[in-house]
């Protein structure tokens, strides 16, 4: 029996910011929350050996009668009357129908999955109505909270509370043994390593780092870019690396238990995201930035959505205009050439995560709703 059923289209075994965010949250709440999610991702199956129950949502996660019935059936099996949407679009459109079945609902709101449908007049109305019918809305960043307030401002007042990302500081730590990562990848212990980690999609901007490598290598000889992750852009990125002067290593999919070592092995972490589609496709926060910072690694990121909340410019890393490749290259060079600055930013980054994003911080608004 669970106190709530989380319904989400993004979950393990996926390795992205949303997946990491939700998995960490569920672990902290176990076994109070069960999960209903797609049965597989990239050929790997939904885990069944977690500290909380997981159920497979077959087929496409669309807000139709079959999905509605599946949610209701699993909620009944878990003996709960509360639904928590881990990703609101598009399944939160089922919220009013679930309410008519006496199922209360809340939603965690990340970023792009809110902005894109909200820009389409017809969908905006349905989305706003569905979100306004929730007991509680939980944006992951101040940026997302502002957009959420704007979307439902003229509707019934619903409680909106920020639910910060949560990073396990015992797992993500500078003390992680990371020497084996460089040995495995064939990187000299003295060479500077730039890490890109996550799902390989256009918005993440990995191509900008690869294209900047020749400029970086002129100032930092031997600098190496490590791309950890898989996704639809991988083939194009590999082709780009073949045409680019400099060393680029594709590490493939990195198991969750190895992720901290990859972060700790890097001299700088790069997430050169930028807004796309006229500001509709943005980075809600950037959980990977927090994980890297927790490992004491300074970060360089693009200014998009909530990234300035994850990286304090000039303190824990650098926030740039990722669309300007010269700016991105200059930011990476600045950190790679200055070991004292890198160490100071690494220490400040971990302190920032410990103060604001630690897994030890109780998610009080959600706990109160569950009760």
Key words describing this protein structure:
single chain, 371 residues, alpha/beta, Rossmann fold, 2 domains, 7-stranded parallel sheet, 6-stranded parallel sheet, 15 helices, 15 strands, 16% strand
Task: Outline the secondary-structure elements.
Blueprint: E1 4-7, H1 17-29, E2 33-37, E3 40-41, E4 44-45, E5 54-56, H2 65-77, E6 82-85, H3 95-100, E7 104-109, H4 112-118, H5 121-132, E8 136-139, H6 142-152, E9 159-160, H7 179-185, E10 193-197, H8 206-219, E11 224-228, H9 234-242, E12 247-252, H10 259-265, E13 268-271, H11 287-294, E14 299-302, H12 307-310, E15 317-320, H13 325-336, H14 339-356, H15 364-370
Helix pairs in contact: 8-13, 11-14
Structural notes for this entry:
The protein has helices spanning 17-29, 65-77, 95-100, 112-118, 121-132, 142-152, 179-185, 206-219, 234-242, 259-265, 287-294, 307-310, 325-336, 339-356, 364-370; strands at 4-7, 33-37, 40-41, 44-45, 54-56, 82-85, 104-109, 136-139, 159-160, 193-197, 224-228, 247-252, 268-271, 299-302, 317-320. The chain has 371 residues and is of the alpha/beta class. The chain folds into two domains: 4-163, Rossmann fold, CATH 3.40.50; 179-356, Glycogen Phosphorylase B (Rossmann fold, 3-Layer(aba) Sandwich), CATH 3.40.50.2000. The chain has a seven-stranded parallel beta sheet with strand order 5-2-1-6-7-8-9, sandwiched between helices. Helix 9 (234-242) links the parallel strand 11 and strand 12 (247-252). The chain starts with a strand and ends with a helix.
């Amino acid at each position: 029996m669970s106190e709530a059923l989380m319904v989400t289209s993004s979950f393990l075994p996926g390795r992205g910011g949303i997946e990491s965010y939700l998995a960490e949250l569920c672990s902290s709440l176990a076994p109070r929350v069960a999960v209903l999610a797609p049965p597989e991702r990239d050929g790997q199956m939904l885990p069944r050996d977690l500290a909380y129950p997981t159920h497979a949502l077959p087929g496409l996660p669309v807000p139709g009668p079959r999905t509605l019935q599946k949610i209701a059936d699993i909620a009944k099996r878990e003996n709960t009357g509360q639904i928590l949407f881990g990703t609101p679009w598009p399944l939160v459109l089922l919220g009013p129908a679930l309410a008519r079945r006496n199922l209360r609902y809340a939603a965690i709101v990340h970023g792009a999955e809110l902005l894109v449908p909200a820009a389409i007049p017809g969908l905006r109305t349905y989305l706003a109505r569905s979100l306004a019918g929730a007991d509680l809305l939980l944006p992951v960043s101040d940026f997302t909270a502002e957009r959420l307030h704007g979307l439902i401002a003229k509707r019934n007042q619903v409680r909106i509370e920020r639910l910060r990302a949560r990073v396990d500081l015992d797992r993500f730590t500078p003390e992680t043994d990371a020497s084996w990562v460089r040995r495995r990848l064939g990187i000299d212990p003295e060479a500077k390593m730039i890490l890109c980690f996550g799902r390989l999609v256009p918005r993440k901007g990995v191509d900008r780092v690869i294209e900047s490598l020749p400029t970086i290598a002129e100032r930092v000889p031997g600098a190496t870019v490590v791309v950890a992750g898989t996704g639809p852009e991988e083939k194009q990125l590999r082709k780009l690396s073949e045409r680019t002067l400099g060393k680029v290593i594709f590490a493939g999919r990195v198991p969750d238990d190895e992720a901290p070592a990859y972060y700790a092995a890097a001299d700088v972490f790069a997430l050169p995201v930028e807004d796309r589609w006229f500001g509709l496709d943005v980075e809600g926060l950037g959980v990977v930035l927090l994980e890297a910072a927790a490992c004491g690694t300074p970060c360089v990121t693009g200014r998009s959505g909530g990234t300035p909340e994850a990286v304090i410019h000039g303190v824990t890393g650098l926030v740039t205009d990722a669309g300007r490749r010269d700016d991105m290259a200059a930011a990476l060079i600045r950190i790679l050439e200055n070991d004292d600055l890198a160490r100071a930013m690494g220490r400040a980054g971990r302190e920032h995560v410990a103060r604001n994003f630690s897994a030890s911080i109780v998610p009080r608004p959600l706990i109160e709703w569950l009760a």
